[in-house]
Structure formats: C-alpha cells, structure tokens
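I have a small job for you when you get a moment. Would you make up a two-line entry for one protein for me to read? No commentary is needed, just the two lines. Write everything out right here, beneath this request.
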Amino acid sequence: MADIGIKVSKPGIDVSETDVKNQVINSEHNSLKVWMTGSTNITKSAGTGDFSVNIAHGLGYPPFFLTYFKLVHASKYWFQESLDDSILPVDFVYGLAKADSTNLTLTVRDNSGVDAFTAVAYYIILIDKAYE
C-alpha cells in the first residue's frame, strides 16, 4: 500500500496507525463524488396532481441523488418522500424524485387541493468516478 494520497481519520484516532474502517476519507478507495448540484422552482396550479421538472444530467445511466424541497416563502425543508400516499389518512403536499439514464425528475405532488404555490426543489447528483 502506497503512502501517497489523502487520509483523514475519525476524531481521536491516529490516521497513520489505523485501518480504513476508522478513516473518513482515504484517496486509495472509491467514494461518491458530486457531479451536479442546483435548485429549480416547481410551480403548482390550483387543484390536485403532480407538477414536475426534468433536470438533464447527461450520464447515460441513473445516478445516485439526494433531493429536498421547500415552499418558496417557508423556512422548513423536507426530503423526498417514498410513501404510499394511498395509506395516509390526511391530504398533504410532498416532493418526489426519480432518475433515469437521461434525467432527474423532481415532482411536487399535491393531494390537498390547495391554491397555486411554488416549491423549490434542491438536488445533488452523485457519481462514482471509477465507473466513468
């Protein structure tokens, strides 16, 4: 094993005397890299339904991603939901995300029927450069 590269250990552990499981970063091993970040507005008209925006990523395969949402004038954020909304006893608004080989699709779903609003969708697309 070469001694060239970057290694960062967990707090209180000597990086030169520990194995990789106690390291936060080790440049000899693969880790996910940020490919693309951004945000976009999704405007919902009155009524219920899905309102979506596609973000082209150009990778040719579905990437890993993280997404979160907030209403434009709100201060709280929420992560994408993976709930089956048919089992929920109340109507509400939530965000969804999915990726294919071309796009990351960000969706705001409104089951409540509230008036029009705008949500902001934030995204981080991650890749493993070893497979690029």
In short: The longest strand covers residues 33-44. The CA atoms of residues 41 and 120 lie 5 Å apart. Residues 32-131 form a domain with the Immunoglobulin-like fold (CATH 2.60.40).
